[in-house]
């Protein structure tokens, strides 16, 4: 593996980038600086209880959770409003709902980006501080605080209460050999380079429409493989979804029941029937869906997702 012996940086990482990332994190207003300072005091105090660390992170977690859940609710309300507006033929209401849906999606993406930047800050500072003598107490304080806060901001933990593990003691541990690898450091031709950390913290919230389309294409590639063009896959999917969207009995289930309930109803069979009707125009893709039960279910789920979001033209 010549990478380990020949890899070189393609450029120098600007030490100032850590301050740019700090400003980006500060600007979100998720944490207050006095909380960061109080956490750092407790963190570097060997006599401080572990519960104090969670205590000083809780306000930021609550602010993040409040914004995140509000954004998710706003997105859900916008989807409901869009369904109603589309059903009533309300073009003005539909436009307003699309705008609200885009705003809610951007808010969720902005918070996801904050969580990602929090982790990026920790990794970048821990790396650069071994090389650059920052001698900046605020960077050190934010690093230890961010490292503890980041796992608390996982979506599946936002509504959970923190458990105090301060009284737990390690009684024993076990080492298990899981795998064995042999690294070959022989010289081979080729260039082996590492990118500097110049792009850290430069991420932007995703465009909701582009993100949705990317997710659909990824799901279709999992079903049909990369041999079939994205355009052909999307054309096939959209055609099937449009036909099903005109079937009132199926759409009544889609609009009023959960995904599990719909998938246990007549929806999967109706998808297969519609795919069968499309054999003439898309024989290869139709056969892949019809001949493979797991692919037919995965395809039906993608159709259901499109219909549930009301992204298919009536």
Written account of the structure:
The longest helix has 38 residues, at 50-87. With 314 residues, the chain is an all-alpha fold. Helix 5 packs across helix 6 (137-149) and helix 7 runs antiparallel to helix 13. The protein has a two-stranded parallel ribbon with strand order 1-2. The chain has two domains: 13-161, no CATH class; 208-308, no CATH class. It has 13 helices and two strands. The chain has helices at residues 3-6, 17-27, 33-43, 50-87, 91-128, 137-149, 208-224, 230-245, 248-256, 259-263, 267-277, 283-290, 293-308, and strands at residues 8-9, 193-194.
* Helix and strand sequence: HEHHHHHEHHHHHHH
Gap between N and C termini, in Å? 56 Å
Task: Report the count of strand segments.
Answer: 2
Number of helices: 13
Unreliable stretches, pLDDT < 50, 5 or more residues? none
Overall body shape: extended
The largest sheet, given as strand count, sense and whether it forms a barrel, is: 2 strands, parallel
Computed CA radius of gyration, to the nearest angstrom:
26 Å
Q: Approximately how much beta-strand content do the residues carry?
A: under 5%
Instruction: Give the averaged pLDDT, no decimals.
Output: 82
Structural class: mainly alpha
Instruction: Provide the helix percentage.
Output: 55-70%
Structural domain count: 2
Give the strand order, joined by hyphens, for the main sheet. Answer: 1-2
């Amino acid at each position: 593996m010549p990478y380990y012996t020949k890899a070189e940086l393609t450029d120098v990482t600007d030490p100032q980038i850590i301050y740019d990332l700090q400003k980006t994190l500060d600007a979100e207003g998720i944490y207050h600086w006095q909380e960061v300072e109080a956490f750092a005091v407790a963190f570097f105090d060997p006599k401080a209880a572990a519960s104090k660390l969670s205590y000083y992170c809780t306000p930021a977690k609550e602010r993040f959770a409040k914004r995140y859940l509000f954004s998710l609710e706003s997105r859900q309300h916008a989807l409901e409003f869009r369904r109603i507006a589309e059903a009533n033929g309300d073009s003005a209401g539909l436009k307003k709902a699309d705008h609200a849906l885009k705003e809610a999606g951007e808010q969720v993406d902005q918070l996801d980006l904050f969580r990602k930047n929090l982790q990026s800050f920790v990794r970048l500072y821990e790396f650069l501080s071994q090389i650059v003598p920052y001698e900046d107490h605020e960077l050190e304080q934010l690093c230890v605080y961010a490292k503890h806060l980041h796992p608390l901001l996982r979506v599946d933990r936002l509504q959970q209460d923190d458990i105090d593990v301060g009284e737990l003691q390690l009684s024993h541990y076990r080492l298990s050999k899981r795998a064995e690898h042999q690294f070959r450091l022989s010289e081979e031709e080729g260039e082996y380079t590492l990118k500097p950390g110049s792009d850290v913290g430069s991420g932007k919230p995703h465009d909701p429409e582009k993100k949705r389309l990317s997710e659909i294409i990824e799901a279709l590639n999992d079903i049909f493989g990369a041999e079939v063009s994205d355009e052909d896959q999307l054309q096939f999917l959209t055609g099937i979804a449009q036909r099903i969207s005109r079937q009132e009995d199926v759409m009544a289930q889609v609009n009023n029941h959960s995904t599990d309930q719909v998938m246990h109803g007549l929806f999967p069979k109706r998808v297969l029937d519609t795919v069968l009707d499309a054999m003439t125009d898309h024989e290869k893709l139709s056969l892949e869906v019809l001949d493979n039960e797991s692919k037919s279910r995965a395809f039906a789920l993608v159709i259901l997702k499109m219909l549930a979001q009301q992204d298919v033209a009536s």
